[in-house]
Every structure is written in C-alpha cells, then in structure tokens.
Amino acid sequence: MARQPLNDRATVVFDLDGTLADTAADLIETMNVLMARENVAPVPVERARDVVGAGARAMIQRGFALGGRSLSQDKLDQLFVDFLDHYAQHLAVKTRLFPGVVEALDLLEAAGHRLAVCTNKVETHSVALLEALGVADRFAAICGRDTFAYAKPDPRHLTGTIEKAGGDPARAIMVGDSRTDIDTARAAGLPVVAVTFGYTDTPVTALAPDVIIDRFDELYDVVRALDPDLAAAVA
Q1: Cα separation, 220 vs 109, whole angstroms
Q2: What's the distance, CA 196 to chain centroid?
Q3: What is the per-residue pLDDT across 153-189, written as a single tens digit (0 to 9) for each?
C-alpha cells in the first residue's frame, strides 16, 4: 500500500524504463532470445537507446529491423506474447534503480507529493519489477500500457494515472527520458522533466522539455521550482 502524502502537493509521475530503472540489459537479453530463435543477429546492449523506450512491440520491431528483418503483424503478435512470457521470468536479473532514485523519492514524499508511475511496460511487469526493486509501495498508482484503453503518448494515460493516484490531473509533473514522455506531458498540458541517462534515439536536449537533469539528486529542487505550493512552503 502506497504511503499517504503529508500535504496536497503536485503529483510527480515517473516513467519506468530508462527513468527510474536501468532495465536495458534484461529487456535486450529477452529480445535476443527471440532473435536467436529466428536466426537474427543479436542486438548489443549498447544499442538500447535505439530500441528501448516505446514499449515491447516497438522494441521487437526495432530490434528485428536492426537485424535486417521486417515482421508481419501476425509474427509480431506471436513474438510479443513470447517476449512477455520470457521477460516475466527475467525482469530483475540485471535491472537496477538509477543512482539517487530512493533518496529523491524520500525527499518528494516527505514534502507531501503523491508519486506515481506511468509506463508503456505492461502493468503486471511494472508492478513486479518495482516490487523486486523494493520501491513499489512508494507509488500511489503504477499504470502500464494495458491499465487503460490508451497508452502514452495519449495524454489520457498520464491523466488517468494521476487520477488513479488520487491526484489532480491539472497539478502534476512528469519525469521521463524520451520523446514519448515529453509529448505525453505536453498533450496533457503538464510540465515535464527529462533525464539525460535514459533510452532515447533523440537526445532530450533536442526535445525541449521544461527542465533537463543529469542526476536524481537534482530532481527535488526542480520539482520545488515547478510546484508553486512547494516553493512557497520551503521559501
């Protein structure tokens, strides 16, 4: 059960892959199992920025494209099911939280923020991974691409996550690592913070988020600046 915020501050919503957690190794190793079955060259983990970040279906398509193979819709559907089955058993082998995540969550929680996760990972995997990493109880809502009938970059995925967390969709801040997160927040009319260490084929510096951070120890001050109520409380 997520802890209750001390005050009614803005909800802070996080992407998962490439934002809260460095999931690339486990994602790509799962994809490479499928690629080996299809006699396609594996994708090195160093290419994570080219394939990870828009959900499993997009990752499979991108990975096979790097191997010179296009996929029919039926084949993609089959590989997607196989991917989910394999990944469910291997989602926290090498995955770790990025440095400073726990400390940032501590500060935001102490300041009274609701915390939530809005990801294009499926919900069961998202919850299981965050439980394995020891932080699932920090979030009032963990919403995946299958939680609602729509997913990022549809802004309703973000606003629905905020509502499920008990927050106000008009008073929230998105934290992500990719064009998808930035476009989603923009469409919802919300400020967005982008991290530079995630998975994106376009540098976040070229995507014009409201703020860019290189480390999680910068996040609290950024949220303080973006949330007028918090700024006034700590001034």
Answers
A1: 10
A2: 13
A3: 999 999 999 999 999 999 999 999 999 999 999 999 9
Q: Pick from 185, 178, 173: which is nearest to 219 by CA?
A: 173
Q: What is the dihedral of CA 66, 72, 75, 79, to 10 degrees?
A: 40
Residue 1 in this model has a pLDDT that exceeds 50: no
Q: Active-site residue numbers?
A: 15
Nearest to 87 by CA among 138, 43, 26: 26
User: From the annotation, which residues make up the binding site for Mg(2+)?
Assistant: 15, 17, 177
- Sequence ranges of the binding site: 15, 17, 177
Cβ within 8 Å of residue 32, ≥6 positions away: 42, 43, 63
Whether residue 30 is predicted with pLDDT greater than 80 in this model: the reply is yes
pLDDT at 58: 85
Domains, the chain, ranges and CATH? 11-23+94-234 (3.40.50.1000), 24-88 (1.10.150.240)
